[in-house]
Design goal:
heterodimer; A: 234 residues; 3-stranded antiparallel sheet; B: mainly alpha; ABC transporter involved in vitamin B12 uptake, BtuC; 12 helices; globular
Chain lengths: 234, 266
């Protein structure tokens, strides 16, 4: 469904991720790990076709309308007036097609996703007045609204406390099972990544590991990264 | 007079609706640049004895696309480019006017607007275009919101953001050309910026901000016209002064609300 063949990506002319060879089948959960600046976010942008590959090929059988995306940092200006509901609903934009307005099922989907994330009571609150963790959940609800086949998440646990992080992983596993979604996420949370993900891709400027999560634990790359884990998160 | 009033109200409505998106996208300067381009093209049109709207419409629309393209690149370059284009067209406009008819009341009218500057054909064209802007805005409202709030997300999930950005630029260009002669080239951008900022003082949702901006803009226009009638001041300047008053009033209201909220918490 989604694959890279010897692909490399550049950020402002500098190659930040090279030698990428991996593939994700429908319904699989891929977790991209690596230290800061190892090219994870750039890879996601490449997979989303926001950025063309510098070399090699990205193969995708998906249409952009089938993808939900949670950016790492949304550059929303401090004074942007938008309610939580408006933000979540904007995730349904890709199912509008040629219709000018949202139908009842779009609104229902937005409310359902807010409910799932436990923020339906914030529906009419102003987005910019929420805490970081709450904003993150709103953006996740928006991503869920947009995702029909693939969900791309860039550090979804940013700003969430440990309990909320655990809930997030459980929720993702549940949604993935229910809707048959494929998940590609960047994470610094190695224990949870190993527990929930099917596949691990370890980047360090280039691909140093790709394979099942169970095999990663025993690989040299995995072992050294897990041992140093808490340090590299800082 | 009635005709001018109808056109003015429609233009203020369009400007307020688009203004919310432009201000939030940090495109407010583009509106200002476009009005100067409009001034230049208006001067050239008059010198050539052509109908003002038919010349300035395509020129300003073209400039809008150009400015959008420039500002989507590097930010500092965009700012400088806007200043470059707006001052160039201002200079060309002034030079053309002084060559053709000499510096006279025309210049003053272009710069600061005149409510009597509209012919009957102009009015029909203006009303049609203003309605077109309104209808397009309504139909693309949700898309405009999405592109304004988070362009990257919209693009990643399959929206053709380039087209919607161009739509916003096109609608802005139309609005500016239509409002320019009544409000004046130097003042028209205030019609775009003020209502949005005013309603953002108090409202917290995109929808309420948009609706509130529309009403503020209409009210300020009406009050401004009435004031200009009684005090014999230029219509454009009077409308802008009303907008300043509304902005200060909303700002004060918001401060008051915040203060009361804090008091209650204590």
């Amino acid at each position: 469904m989604l694959a890279c063949q010897d692909a490399s990506f550049a950020c402002q002319g500098v190659t930040v991720a090279a030698g990428l060879n991996f593939s994700v089948a429908p319904g699989e959960w891929l977790c991209v790990v690596g230290e800061n600046g190892s090219g994870k976010t750039t890879l996601l942008q490449g997979l989303l076709r926001l950025k063309p590959p510098h070399g090699g090929r990205v193969i995708s059988s998906l249409k952009a309308e089938e993808i939900g995306y949670l950016p790492q940092q949304t550059v929303v200006s401090r004074d942007f007036p938008a309610s939580v509901y408006e933000v979540a609903l904007s995730g349904r934009l890709n199912s509008l097609g040629l219709r000018p307005f949202y139908a009842r099922r779009d609104k229902a989907a937005a409310e359902m996703n807010l409910e799932r994330l436990g923020i339906l009571d914030l529906k009419n609150k102003c987005y910019r007045e929420l805490s970081g963790g709450q904003q993150q959940r709103v953006l996740l609800a928006r991503a869920l609204c947009a995702a029909r086949k693939l969900l791309v998440l860039d550090e979804p646990a940013t700003g969430l406390d440990p309990l909320a992080t655990l809930q997030l992983y459980r929720l993702l596993a549940e949604i993935k099972r229910e809707n048959g979604l494929t998940v590609v996420m960047v994470s610094h949370d190695i224990p949870n990544a190993l527990k929930y993900a099917d596949l691990i891709l370890h980047l360090q400027g280039r691909q140093i590991f790709f394979g099942p999560a169970a095999a990663y634990r025993d690989s040299p790359a995995g072992r050294s990264f897990i041992e140093r884990g808490p340090v590299s998160v800082l | 007079m009635l005709r001018a009033l109808v056109v003015g109200l429609l233009v203020s409505l369009c400007a307020a609706l688009l203004g919310v998106s432009l201000v939030l996208k940090r495109y407010a300067m583009i509106g200002d640049g476009l009005s100067h381009v409009g001034f230049g093209s208006l001067a050239v049109a008059t010198a050539m004895n052509a109908a003002p709207l038919t010349v300035s419409l395509p020129v300003v629309v073209l400039a809008a696309f150009l400015l959008l393209r420039i500002s989507s690149g590097s930010k500092i370059k965009g700012d400088a480019a806007i200043a470059l284009i707006s001052t160039s067209s201002l200079a060309i406009g002034v030079a053309v006017i002084s060559l053709s008819s000499g510096m006279n009341t025309d210049v003053c009218n272009y710069m600061f607007g005149s409510i009597l500057a509209m012919s009957k054909a102009d009015v029909y064209l203006s009303v049609t275009l203003a309605l077109l802007v309104l209808i397009l805005f309504l139909f693309f409202y949700h898309r405009i919101f999405a592109v304004t709030f988070d362009e990257t997300f919209a693009r990643a999930t399959g929206s053709r953001t380039g087209i919607y950005n161009m739509l916003i630029a096109l609608l802005t260009a139309l609005t500016i050309v239509l409002g320019m002669r009544m409000m004046g080239a130097l003042l028209i951008s205030s019609l775009i910026i003020f209502p949005a900022l005013t309603s953002m003082r108090v409202c917290k949702r995109f929808k309420t901000v948009t609706v509130c901006a529309a009403f503020v803009s209409l009210a300020c226009f009406l009050c401004g016209i009435i004031a200009s009638y009684f005090f014999a001041t230029p219509a454009g300047a009077s409308v802008v002064i009303m907008n300043i008053i509304a902005f200060l009033a909303f700002w004060f209201l918001n401060t008051l609300l915040l203060w009361r909220g804090r008091e209650r918490k204590k």
